[in-house]
Every structure is written in structure tokens, then in C-alpha cells.
Amino acid sequence: MSDEEHQEITSYSALQGNEGDVLSSSTSSISNKSTINNSPIEDGNKVEATQDNHTNNDEELAKDLENRRALIKTLLSEQDWKEGDTCVVIPKLFIDSFFTTQAMSIDELRNILGPMDFHTIVDNSGQLFPPENEPAPTIAVSQNVFQHLSYWFGVLGQPLERSFITNPQTGVVEIERWPIAFAIHCIGKKPHQPAYFRHGYSRHNHHHHNHNHEPENEGPYFVSVSRTKTFLYLLELIKDQLLKLSKRSIDDFRLWFVSDSKQNELPYLITTTNFVYKISRKNLVPPNVLKRTLLSEGVDDIIFHVVIEYKEKSNMQFPIDTFVQSRISAEENNLKLGGHMGLSNLGNTCYMNSALQCLLHVPEINQYFFNNIYQKELNVDNPLGYNGDVANAFGSLLKSAFDPAKSSSSMSPRDFKHTIGRYSSMFSGYLQQDSQEFLSWLLDALHEDLNRIQKKPYCEKPELKDDEVDDKEAIARLAETCWNQHKQRNDSVITDLFTGLYESILVCPDCGKTSITFDPFSDLTLPLPINKKWYHTFTVVDYSKTLVNGISKVEVELKTTSNYDDLINYLSNFLNVGNESLFLYEVFQHGIYADFQKNRIKNKFLPISDLIKDGDDVVVYIIPHNTETDVIIPVFNVVEDSDTSYRMENYFGIPLFITLSKDQLNSFGTIRQKLLETVSFLTTVDLVGEYELVKQENENYTGKKYYSKRDFPTLATEENGKAEDEYDSDVSLANPYVDADFGFKIKYIYDCEIPSSQKSRFSFNSDSHASTTTIHVPLHKPAISTYKLLSEKLPPSKRMYYHSQRAGGTLAEEKPAEEDKSLSGPEEKLDGYLVSRTNTPQIMPLGRDEWNDSNEAVASIDERIQVEGKSESEASNTLEQSLRPALPPRHQPNSNLNLSDTESEGMFGSSSFMPPQTVCPDSTKPSNINSPLESNFDEEANTTTTLVNRSSVLLCDWDKDIYMKLFGNTSLTTWVTPPELVNQELVESKARFERQRKSKITLAECLRSFSTPEVLGEHDLWYCPNCKDHKRATKSIQIWSTGDILTIHLKRFHSARAFSDKIDVVVDFPIEGLDMKPYLANPSVQEKDCIYDLIAVDNHYGGLGGGHYTASVKNFKDDKWYYFNDSRVTEINNPEELVSSAAYLLFYRKRRPDNESLGGDNLREILKRGEEEYKAKAIEKEELLTDLQKSIDKYHSALRFDQSQDGEIDYESELSTGEVADEKSSGEEHEVPKPARRQRVLSKDGEDGHCSLHHSNSKRQKMNSSPPEDADVSSSENSDLNGDVTGRETSTTEVKID
After folding, report:
1. 3-state DSSP assignment of residue 1254
2. pTM over 0.90
3. What is the pLDDT of residues 1134-1158, one digit of tens each?
4. What does 1060-1120 look like in DSSP terms, one character per residue?
5. Which domains does the chain have, with CATH numbers?
6. Residue 259's beta-bridge partner residues?
7. 158 φ/ψ sector (left φ>0, alpha ψ -120 to 50, else beta)
């Protein structure tokens, strides 16, 4: 039949004449204009619209239906199937109903039949049933027929496209009901970033984590391909669709068919190592086979696993070729090479690199991990372990470091770093850490991951009876029992090699009770027999007059582990004063910054170096006093600034104190005299003598102890009949020749502050009590403008005698101009401070302890409540209002006690900073020691008032001229450069310490000092079972036994925290022949078991806060020493260079004859078996490499042959011109245009019916490529990927895949 005749018969539009081209007119036009995925509803609507336009009666509609049926009949009759042709399998019932169902139009027929339903011919997995078990018969139709039917009726489900293939048994061309499923794997590397960082993996859920969901464990992708397709088609499909590398030449790719007993567990990404060694059978597809069909080469099972490999861009070599070549050459030198690999610094990871190098070069550790023995002893279920991840990471690192095939000089430990960071927050970042802490953690982690004890038994720690403490045999039995108990719970290669025993002895100082226990250790920490000292220079102010000078300085020497109590005891002994007379304050800018008395309990738990820093200015005051009757009041000194334009006053000197007895608190004259005496400490001038000279210079001077009213002629007063030298209460201690303000004015404030941070703690029902302090000091500098003249508190009748030298000598109650200006002037904000006209800051907070004892402020408020006599409800309202952030009113209500002619305002430092004066109920009154208004003595409370009390702060406001005469020159001051007290003991100790630092310390001295008994500190007490109390027992630790690998930690860093202090002294240690026998408490140990040789040193260079770690290691493979500085490795010619001040960790190995392995008989047997198995596997690997090399050689030979015959192989042209059929197949080929063929090859949805791409873990699986759950296999090697394939006969038409 000619093409013209075929066109005329098969074209539905030809039957319609000129009524419109509704349907396509040819097979080619159908494939171009429509696909099986076109919307059937949409296309039906188009047909219906056309019919409305061109058909107007039932006769024409019926004729249209008959024409359509005739077209389908004609197309079905022309179907002549050949091998390789594609078809669509549809329900036979549908095509029969299409021809037999009575209908008047295509619309009526469509409403009767409905869409073509593919669900009726497939099972639950979307695959065809076997022919003999079909619930609904099927029929194969051409793409042309299917396009017409789907265009008219629509489709339900996924159309099933299949190819025709020749049955080798019958020779009949049949439908290939089940194409081959190819599981696609790829040669590649695991991603650098571990999956637990991408999936939130943590130690706590690792036992339940599904590792199959991790990217490096992804299952393979699946491709369904007809057996009639070529290997080249399969390779191109994988390259373009899966790898998305369509631009690369196909010559860069090759295909491996693989099979293994565990092939269903293979991930998508397979490393070169696993590919070569873990997969048993591998067949490489040679170039001359690529153009052949799969069936022609026997690829006829339901599933195959294939591995795609492509050339690396770096060297344009296949990775398998590179790996095999390097391994074949490396296996010959396996025993000679290795051990010189450096480790890259990832960022402050030198601490890790140095410790790893030392551990990697321990021969037994190296053999245990390099021979893969550790894999058999992994304990992944240990709750104290890390799921075996740390051991696996360490093993991988060791094998890479000793890999003879590696040609590089260094490697990156990034994967290992990620693993340990996953389980330890300390090592997760990139901060500098301590190498010893890392080594200790790593040994513990490896032990738990490799612990041979799966279920640890409960063991009670044995005790030694009191009558056996002197029995050496009983002690030895106790040690053996403790060791056996430890081994019952802890048994690993780490325990075999590193673990030793301590003997700990505690003796009660009272009853003599002796406790002996044994504890395991993996590294021996030795303190260096050199005491690191703490030095500080203090200023001493002596009010006891025991020292030559009032102000002097002294340098103190203490151990770095000393606390505040040790400092007080040292000063007490050196100054020869009682502890109760010593007061320490930190001074800053002439104010008190810290009060060490306030937190004395807390200070006991802090090292003195943390409490007092090098730059701190600490003043020690020696103040003799009676705690029952005396009040100690702080004193500050100020003077007007030399620049008078600013009208500012500045503090000077150091804070001072005066001590007043109970009966002196109301004596203005006594206070004046005490201030005169104490400020004389600040100058070299005899201040008291100068005042006497000023008095005597008066021509009418008469010396008296007490003056009477008649001695004040300028004052118009009446005589009171007092005799000469008799005390007059009005005159008091006033002097008629010197005014009370001469030289300096005495001012005061009451320092009773409540910090805002403590306001919320006030509770009227609280039972808390304020802590009592001997001296109340302000931890800030109150504004000078807030001070008031102390003389203004005096009654007018008494005040006029103290100020008799003022012009006119009047009784008028007037305030001095200075005070008026300071109190009445306006205020303004400047730089965050409330500033008066004098530009003096109102409050200058100084202290770190400023709010530590807030209850003292509460106490002062409580005192005011009692004085002012307010009720509890009134007090509550007053306090609530006073604690608001708004500024208080300038004037507070007067107290109901009229103390003086001045009001009580301004007793707090600053209205902008302090709460206003307020009242609290008596129920909250914890103490009255700080009350600004009451007497400081309980028996006088509410009955008398005094000029000063414990809350008072005094200020000496100096006249500028007199200040210049007394303090204007540094030569006149005593606080700037005070004389130094000679501390002979300190001088000798410094000299001794320096001599010790310059000399060498031997390791033997360190070992001897290790067992020196020591008395426990007050914070480290031991509970004595006999005394039933905690005691400062005498403790000594001795070494009972040592491990075969002895790790010695030289304790160069002194405090508990790393890098707090370092000792750089050289410790002289032996390179060979360390004899531990003299230092072991076990008398039964033999001398031959106590000789050790050095194998590694972990060095630390630098000082406090950081530095750099390196390692000096002996390589057991060539018996040479090497210096590992991160990635740089150099040989050490002279091992004596190892002895330096940088040596931090020493690794010693017990000496054994003939290089016998260590760790005991059990470990030796394990290592021996592991080595034999490793050598046997090495032989197998060599055979695998040899076979693989042969396959690779054949591949390249075939490639060279094809290139020599035909030039470069143009596989693209093969794909564009059509598939090459098997040489034995008959019939003419279909010539498919290149665009059409390319469209079919690159189709994701399998438009040509031959391929479908999906992933085992993906939702993108297609129904036409999903295998049934009960698919049969012909052999055990071709099982379903999920492992649940049942038996079914394998043939080209009968075999199903999952």
C-alpha cells in the first residue's frame, strides 16, 4: 500500500472532507501535536465544540461515530509487531466496548464508557499481571491508536508502555511485560560535613536514628529499561538524567555491572575503597559492547546493580584506575612506609594534633586500629559510649595517617574534629584547649566505645579492716580485689595498656583512723616541686603606733592557692597585730572601691590572685578598737581646685578613719582633735604641733585644759560661776585662740543607701537581718555639695564658742555662705550626672561591692521609722512612694526630734541617685548599727542623739592656703611614696625561688614529691566514720602499679583552670631506662616490669592564656624520632633535644624483650589473631586488585582497538540515528529522526515506554516502573532491593520487578 493510500484510509479528517481538521492526519503528526499526557477532558471539549459547529442532526453524529470506529479498526488491522516496537497495553474490554456499545454519537458513547481505566489491569504496585492470572484481559495497541482513544475518552491511571521482544524459547514476538530495573550507584566521596550536622543528630538519639536517611547512606536510583535497548542508551540515560552531566563527553563515563551478597545494602555513593574491596564481583562494560543490546549480552534478569564512574577533572583519570595503580605500588611497601604524616591545623587545633600524634605512634594502639581489630570490639550499645563513632573516627584517622598509598605530607583531621565536637562541647569550636584534657577525654571515649563488657555488674567498693592497715598482705589483697572489680566493669584495649592504680591513704588527726583505698588512673599527674608565688605590695596605715611611720608599704608573698584568710594571717604575723584590728580596702581615685570585710565568707573560696589583681591599690588599716564601745568613722579630705573659675573641690590623699568611744560621739571638740591627729598621717609636717604654735602666737595666750566663758571676751555672755579649768558644757572643748574651722571645716553626711537593684527585696514580713560590719564605708564618692557643716548640729549656745573667732561673735543662727550656695543653687544634667553649680558630680559610684550588703541600708530606714514613730501602714505607703523612680522633694518633713537648727534633708548622697528618707515598720528592723538619727547603742535608743554615729561619713574641707603649706608639694606628702617595711623572709624566699627556676628539676624529684603527705584544707574535709565528723585529715597518694604505657602529665599549669599560671622550669627526664620501682608502693612488683623507654613528648610553648602545642614522637616503623609541628614534620637527630622547658606530656612504653607486644596475654592474643587476619585479607585484596587491573587493561585495550579501527567513537551519532539492533534479529529498522529520538531518550516520564527514572527513597516513583511486592527472581543474587521478593518464573514475558 502506497503512502498516499495509507494517508487516505487512516486519516479521520479525510473522512470528514472539508468540515475541519479536528484530528491529526498521520501517525507522525499525532506524535508531534499530542502526547499521552494531554488532558482528555480538554481535548473532548474541543471535539464537542467542533461537532456543535459542523454537525446539526443525529445522522451526521452517527456517521461521525462510525468513521471513528472505522479508523481504529484500520489502525488495529495494520499492527505488525516486531522486536523493539513500542506499544501501550490497555484493557481489552474497553476496545471491545468501543466497537459494540450502541450509541448515537461519540458524546453518548463517552458518557457510557467513561475514561480508559488502567487501574483494572495492574496490581497494587502498578505492574501488569502475568497473562494467565489477568483479572481483566489486555491488548497491545500502537501509540497512534492510544492517542486517538485517549483524545476522545480520557485516561484514568498511568498508561503502560511496553516493548516487544522475541521469546527465545518459542521464537514468538511478545510483550515485554516487565522491563529490567537497574539500581544505579555512583563512585564518589562522602560529603565533608557529617550528616548529623545537617539532620540535628545528637548523642541522645543515636540509638534510634535511621541512618538510611542520611545522604551518604542514600539508596540507589532506579531506571527501568527495555532489554532491547543498548548499553550505550543506558549509559547516556544515566549521564543526562541522573548525573545531569549532558555537556560532558560520553567518553568520560563507563559502566560497571556489580553483584554481591549484600548488594541490596549498597548506598548510592560508593567510595573507591568500598568498591574495590567490599564488592565481590565487578564487570566493566568494554567500549566494543556499548552498541549492543542488553538482551544480546545476557542481561535478562529482573534487576541489576550498576555503578557509573566518570573521570576526575583534576587529572582526567577514572578514579578506580588511579586507586588500583596507587594500591598495587603501595602494597609492596606496606611494612616500610607510614608514620610521617602531619596534621593540618584547622584553627587552634594544635592541642589536638600533638596529642593525636603521640597516641597514633603507640605500637599496640597502631596495630589494633590499623588491622581493623577495633571493629570487632565496638560497643555501640554502651550508654556511656558514643555509638562507636569516636572509635571509628580515630581508626579512620590512623589508617589514613599510616596509609602507604598517600603521597602527601599532611592530611586534614576535619572528620575526626567534627566527630569529637559532636559529643563534647569543649572541643566543638575552635578555641585553644588543653592537650592533657583532650587526651584524657579521648582515652575515656575510646575506652567506652571499645569496652568489652556489655553489661556492667554492680560492685561494692571493698574496705580494709582497722586491724589490717599495717598488714602488707591484706593491703595487697585489697589492691587485687579493687583491680579485679575494675576489670569486671571496664575491659578494653585502653584499660589493657594505660591503666594503673593509685593507693590513697587518709589519717584522722584526732582518732588516728586510717582509710586505704585504690583507684585507677590512665595518666599520672605530677606536680612540679616548685611553689609558684603570689606577690603584692600593700599600703599600711598604722593607728596602733607600733610602726615607725604612720603610712608605709609592705610586699607580701603567698602561695597562688592562698585565700583571703591566709592573707590576713600573714599580715597579722608580720605586723604583729591581731586579726580583728586589720581592715582592708581597695582605694581608687581617693575613694573606697571595695570593702573586703563585707564578703569575707565568699572570699575564703577564691584564690587570692583572683580577689586582688596586680594593679589593685589595697590599703591595710591597723585600727585598734573595742567592738563593744567604739565607733570607727571614715574620713575623706577635699580642697578647692586651683582653677577658681570652675569652683570645684577635689578629693586628695587616701581615706582615713577616726575611732570614737561611746561618750565621744557627741563631742565636737574631740572629733576635731581626732581629725587633726589622723590627717597628720598624710603630711610630714607636725600638724598637731603647728596648731599649738598658732595658739601660742596669740599675745593673750593662756594654756588650759578646759576654757570658761570668761576666756571669750568677744562674746557677750553671762558667767555661769564655773571655776578655772572646770568643764563647762556650753564651752565644751572650744578654744578662744583658734576657730573650729581653722585649716579645714568639718562636714558630714549619713551614708544609708538603698540600691535600686535591691528595692524589690523589701518585705515587711521578712525575718532577715542585716549583717553587722564593724565599719560602714561608702563604696562611692558622695557629692561634696551634699555634705553639711558638722558644727551646725550644735546648739547655738555651744556653736558660738567654737566659732568665736568669727567677726562680731554673734549668736545669730545663720548658715555659712558656702553651705547656702551649695544647697540653694540650681541643678542641671550634664553627661548623665546631676551636677550642682559647683560642677561637682552628685554621686560617683565606685565599688564592685557597692550593693553587697543592702540590708544595712534597710536597717538605717528601720531606725528612722522608730525615731519618727510612724505606724506600719503609714510606713508602707511612705516606702512605696519613696521607691518610685521620680526625684524626691527637696525638703522632707521634720523629725519629731529637734536635733539642731538644720533640717534633716540631704542625708543621702544624691537625690538623683538615692531614694528619699522614708520609714519602715518596727517588724522589719534588723539592726540599728547604721541609723543616721539614733544612737548606736541600744540602751540609748530613742533617748539621746549624737553628732556622729556608725553611718556617718566625715569630710575635711581644707583651706587652700593651709593645704598648700601641708600638702602642696610631694615632698610633704606621705601617701604617694611611703617608706617600705623590710621583709627579710620575702627577700630570702625570692632568692631561693629564682635559684630554683634557673636550675633543672629531675623527674625523680617530681615522682618523690607526688607521695608527700598533705593536710586537707578547710574546704576539702574528710568525714571520719569513727569521729562522726568532718576532719582535716592527712592525705597521701602513692603509685601502686603503672600501665604498660605510662603517660606522665607535668603539672605546669597551676590552677584548676587551664592556663591560669605556668611554670617554665626544665624537668630533666630520661629518654631510656626510666626505673619506676623506687616509686611504687607495691612490694611484689618485679624490677624487670618497671623499666620504661620514652616514645613521645607533647610540648607546649607559650604562657598564660594560650600558646602552641607540638609533638616529638618516635616512629616504631623506622625507629627514628620526628618533630610534628602540625602539618610540618622534620627528623630529630639528637633525642636529647626533647628535654626542654616545653615538655608537657611524656609517653613511656614498658620495655619488653624481642619487641613483645604489651597489654597482657589477652591483648597479645587479640593482636596476633588480628594481624593474621589482616595479612590474609591483604592477600585477598591483592588478588582483587590484580583482577581489577586486568579488567581495566582489557577496557583500555578495547578502547585503543576501536579508536585505531574507526577513529574516535561517535556515540552521539549512534544515539541520533537509532539503536543498533542485535546482529541476529531480522526485519528492517525504524528510522527515527534525531529530535524525536533525543526527546524519548531524555524524557523523565518515559514517553517511549522503555525507561523510567526513580529513587528508592523518593516519592517520584512512577507506577509503570514500580515493581510488585511479590516479584519473582531467577537466582538469589537478583533479589528485590527491599529483600522481600518471592519466587516467580523468570522469562522475557513472565518476570516482574519491584
Report:
1. strand
2. no
3. 999 999 999 999 999 999 887 788 9
4. S-B----EE--SS-EE-GGGB--TT--GGGSEEEEEEEEEEE--TT--EEEEEEEETTTTE
5. 3-175 (3.30.2230.10), 180-317+1232-1278 (no CATH), 625-958 (no CATH)
6. 281
7. beta
